Amino acid sequence: MPLDDYRITSGKRFNLAGFDPGSKPFTQGDKQDDQARIAQLSGELDLEQDIFYAEHRRKILVVLQGMDTSGKDGTVRSVFRSFDPLGIRVVSFKAPTPEELARDYLWRVHLQVPRAGEIVLFNRSHYEDVLITRVHGWIDGDECERRYRQIRAFETLLTETGTTIVKCFLHISKDEQKARLEARLADPQKQWKFDPTDLAERKHWKAYMDAYESAIAATSTPECPWYIVPADSKTHRNLMVAEILSAVFRQLKPAYPPPQPDLAKVKIE
């Protein structure tokens, strides 16, 4: 599987336009086969998570970023459906509250990073502070560069204290976003998902693509890589994220902790 082709560990020569949102590099052949593979991987990941939680030593932070309708919620529901809720937590970052605005922008993020044995999913993240803020001119270029540096330092702190960071950009095309927004409008059971502000943000599509390209280029490192996940196909998006996590666990090789000494001598009356 060509994971290396979609893993960005350095900003040198990185060009987002070189990645086709409609490609399916991890497809098994057809949708049913892909869904079966996702179910298989989800079950395997569930076991790995159980061992990881019992190990209670390291941490995993999964960052899901993407344009509206790219499928952050759908990825969480599909890929992590079998995980034990004791060892996983989903955090969604909304507009900062007055209390959060009174502090540095990373303060609220640091509060939510994983504890030992825990997997935390960021549904949007600290990267909003170099995306929407940059697109709308709330910060200038100099401040954006400072934040790139601060984010790299923040993520280095996390990795050096036992956190594995997995950053996924769910790469959807503008045409596919249009189709998904129209589907929401047409389905009474999905209309609650429709937000008119999505249309306003859609007008800044090119600026967002530029902002994502700059942010990914500036914050990709071997320790904290970005993965570009083609997301026009929902099934393939979920499959690829599951494959990425499977590769992460193969690298981590979690193991149950050894039993306490003299456990064999214990007698329960």
Automatic annotation (TrEMBL):
Superkingdom classification of source: Bacteria
EC numbers for this chain: 2.7.4.-
- Annotated ranges, domain Polyphosphate kinase-2-related: 30-247
Presence of the UniProt keyword Transferase in the record: yes
BP GO annotations? polyphosphate metabolic process
Which UniProt keywords are present, listed alphabetically? Kinase, Transferase
Main EC class of this protein?
Answer: transferase
Checking InterPro entries in the record gives:
P-loop_NTPase, Polyphosphate_phosphotransfera, PPK2-rel_1, PPK2-related
GO MF terms listed in the record are: polyphosphate kinase activity
Q: What's the family?
A: Belongs to the polyphosphate kinase 2 (PPK2) family. Class I subfamily.
Its protein name is Polyphosphate:AMP/ADP phosphotransferase
